[in-house]
């Protein structure tokens, strides 16, 4: 997809549009993936800058994942063409020029430095900034809240939502209320969202169809390492990931697992470059019907324990009988349990980090509102001057023109304009 004109005759081929994104990408979820998907659609080549642990700790507080883990997670997202490790926290024109990027893309939220400044101010001023829609219903704050509260309200078909949402407020709310960017909201799955994430590619003759199954909860570097190793098993792999329903995952994992519900886990796995297709609500036992339907040639499982099915049988007995079952050692020992342990260990630090972040965001909002009010008062003072009103426009047109100059004006008639107290 070339966007800088059309090649024709003897004209030189147009230069690809290069797009820049950057961020912490700590606890990567489908909201991050969706932002990168939208950014990639604005150009031809996407470079993603990832901040170091030191930079994040300075401006926000210590991250949950190490920079090496975060680099690998971002690289595994299928819309990313290249990563830039150690990108500066403040996005500058120098950075865009260094990577030959036309513009930078960020969501419609705000990112602030330790002293409360917009990290994208310079590129915005230069006109090299684009905005995409933030994904509603998912945030790191919300996911951490689920881990710490140990409720099941986030599962599909579980009616504990009111109590759950009441408690999650604590993880993204400071003493002055919610920021619209850090607070918790509700995710609603749509078929369009799945279509946007899906590759839409059918297996081709000569492809090796590999089936893997599991919860793939809090899709993390352990999953990426496993899927990468599975991908290396064949020259032309077509990996199908079977995702178990929430209630099934809870049966074999217990507690309040899965942390992410089936809809959220689907998008997280679809965003991975190694996965070609997802079976939503796959049966726990890998059956003959499933293997025949998808024409599976290899079934893989990692080194984690395989819990027996409800009747005590081995869920992989059919692929083992066919001789197509294979254990894959990813070399990673990271599990969803270990991630939850990291969060619990640093709970107070994480809450303090989020409340500090939200306090800065609220300060920006209050400052913007104050600036708007000051502009409004100055406009009223100007239009109330004798030079403009004496023998000038009628009462109606005076207020009308004033409202065009200041759309936020709260006055509705001439008397209001003339009597409004302008003391700040």
TrEMBL record:
Membrane-spanning intervals of the chain: none
GO cellular component: cytoplasm
Keyword Lipid biosynthesis applies: yes
Key word Endoplasmic reticulum present: no
Gene Ontology biological process terms from the UniProt entry: phosphatidylethanolamine biosynthetic process
Pfam families: CTP_transf_like (PF01467)
Domain Cytidyltransferase-like residues, every copy: 20-144, 212-302
InterPro entries: CCT, Cyt_trans-like, Ect1/PCYT2, Rossmann-like_a/b/a_fold
Enzyme class name: transferase
Keywords, alphabetical: Lipid biosynthesis, Lipid metabolism, Nucleotidyltransferase, Phospholipid biosynthesis, Phospholipid metabolism, Transferase
EC number: 2.7.7.14
GO MF entries: ethanolamine-phosphate cytidylyltransferase activity
Pathway linked to the protein: Lipid metabolism; Phospholipid metabolism; phosphatidylethanolamine biosynthesis; phosphatidylethanolamine from ethanolamine: step 2/3
UniProt family annotation: Belongs to the cytidylyltransferase family.
NCBIfam families: cyt_tran_rel
Protein name, entry field: ethanolamine-phosphate cytidylyltransferase
UniProt organism field: Coturnix japonica
């Amino acid at each position: 997809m070339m966007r800088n004109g059309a090649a024709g005759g003897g004209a030189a081929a147009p230069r690809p549009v290069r797009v820049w994104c950057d961020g912490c990408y700590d606890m990567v979820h489908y909201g991050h993936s969706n932002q990168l998907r939208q950014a990639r659609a604005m150009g031809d080549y996407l470079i993603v800058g990832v901040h170091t642990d030191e930079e994040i700790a300075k401006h926000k507080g210590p991250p949950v994942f190490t920079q090496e883990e975060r680099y690998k997670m971002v690289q595994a997202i299928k819309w990313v063409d290249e990563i830039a490790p150690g990108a500066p926290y403040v996005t500058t024109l120098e950075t865009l020029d260094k990577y030959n990027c036309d513009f930078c893309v960020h969501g419609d939220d705000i990112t602030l430095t330790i002293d409360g400044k917009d990290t994208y101010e310079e590129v915005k001023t230069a006109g090299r900034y684009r905005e995409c829609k933030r994904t509603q219903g998912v945030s790191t704050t919300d996911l951490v809240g689920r881990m710490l509260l140990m409720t099941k309200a986030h599962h599909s078909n579980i009616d504990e939502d009111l109590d759950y949402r009441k408690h999650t407020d604590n993880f993204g709310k400071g003493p002055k209320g919610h920021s619209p960017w850090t607070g918790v909201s509700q995710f609603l799955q749509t078929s369009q969202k799945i279509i946007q994430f899906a590759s839409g590619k059918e297996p081709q003759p000569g492809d090796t169809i590999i089936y893997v199954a599991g919860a793939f909860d809090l899709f993390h570097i352990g999953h990426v390492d496993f899927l990468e190793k599975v991908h290396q098993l064949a020259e032309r792999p077509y990996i199908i990931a079977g995702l178990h329903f929430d209630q099934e995952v809870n049966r074999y994992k217990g507690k309040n697992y899965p942390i992410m519900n089936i809809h959220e886990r689907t998008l997280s796995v679809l965003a991975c470059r190694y996965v070609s297709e997802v079976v939503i609500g796959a049966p726990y036992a890998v059956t003959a019907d499933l293997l025949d339907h998808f024409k599976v040639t290899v079934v893989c499982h990692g080194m984690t324990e395989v819990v027996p099915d409800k009747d005590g049988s081995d869920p992989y007995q059919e692929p083992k009988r066919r001789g197509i079952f294979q254990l894959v050692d990813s070399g990673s020992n990271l599990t969803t349990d270990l991630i939850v342990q990291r969060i619990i260990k640093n709970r107070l630090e994480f809450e303090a980090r989020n409340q500090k972040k939200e306090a800065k965001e609220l300060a920006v909002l209050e400052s913007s509102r104050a600036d708007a009010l000051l502009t409004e008062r100055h406009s009223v003072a100007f239009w109330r001057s004798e030079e403009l009103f004496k023998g000038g426009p009628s009462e109606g047109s005076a207020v009308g023109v004033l409202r065009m100059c200041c759309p936020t004006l709260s006055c509705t008639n001439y008397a209001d304009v003339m009597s409004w107290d302008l003391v700040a």
